[in-house]
Amino acid sequence: MKFGLASVALALLLTACSTAPSLTPEEKKRQHEIDSTVANALFDYGVDNQASYNIHEDGHVVVLFDKSVDDVTYTKVVNELRSDPRIPSLEAEQDGKTVCPLNC
């Protein structure tokens, strides 16, 4: 019985993985550009070890800042990323508080 359930679970997992949408070369390039932009901004402000981020397929960026990042640095990073034309929308969170533009 356990073997049968495990086989079904494995088959479902493999099916789900194989049907995941893949990005076009243009979308991959856009993702890479956004990734570089976010990583560089975090590094330039010295918070690359105090933040994590995720880029959605549509280019929307979600950045989670550690609570140790001061408000001034947080605001500078968020404003810089929001001003970049390659990033269509940005959502930033710190200590449970979310800052989000109108288009996120």
Describe the protein's architecture and organization.
- The chain has a 4-stranded mixed sheet, covered by helices on one side.
- The protein is elongated.
- The chain contains 3 helices and 4 strands.
- Helices cover 48% and strands 17% of the residues.
- It has one domain: Alpha-Beta Plaits (2-Layer Sandwich), CATH 3.30.70.
- The chain has 104 residues and is of the alpha+beta class.
Explain briefly what this protein structure is.
The chain is of the alpha+beta class. The chain contains 3 helices and 4 strands.
Q: Estimate percent helicity.
A: 40-55%
Q: Under the CATH scheme, which class? A: Alpha Beta
Multimeric status of the protein: single chain
- Tell me the span between the first and last alpha carbons: 46 Å
Along the chain, the helix and strand elements come as HHEEHEE
Please tag this protein with its features.
104 residues; alpha+beta; Alpha-Beta Plaits; four-stranded mixed beta sheet; 3 helices; 48% helix
Which SSEs are present, and which pair or pack?
Blueprint: H1 2-18, H2 25-44, E1 51-55, E2 61-65, H3 71-83, E3 90-94, E4 97-99
